[in-house]
Amino acid sequence: MRTLLESRGDFAVIGETSDGTEALGLVAKLRPDLLLLDVRMPGLSGPDVVRASQRSSPSTRVVVLTGYADEYDALTFLGAGAHGYLSKTTRAEDLVSALHAVHGGHERVEPEIASRLAARLGRHDGREPTPRELQVLRLVAEGLHNADIADRLSTTPRTVHFHLANVFVRLGVRSRTEAIRRARERGWIP
Question: Which of 11, 26, 80, 169 is 20 to 30 A removed from 127 (C-alpha atoms)?
Fold first, then answer.
């Protein structure tokens, strides 16, 4: 991965580790533009690394690289605040394009994984959100992560994740950013 990114000329790898705890230390120290994470690593769990990195360096955009096309993992990581979820088998040019997009403020999910998510969650159902889903959506729009939303609503991050997944289905979107934009367009949130 390092060789691929550095050979492109527009990326500089400024840190590297295979441990979740060490990754957080590097993020806090180096404040990278992008953090590439493996789904599985020793130390802290991947979703914990995503949440903690977003607290210590909110401007760092997180991309998860996976060897598994598992839609539950994708929802977990995206719910934790990851900005991208890509397969390790993604073609080099597609990976670089996705990293540029994420760096530019967009979110990217591997097409195969996004398709599986859509199949699992169903398609846009057109219904209005429940009051609890609206609460979650408003807090997401304020920039809170699932753990913070759970604290605020006296529930669990898993429940917040469930409500957010339902919002994604209702709006026919795949990312938090898209959900906020579309919810604002519909007048669901200010």
Answer: 80
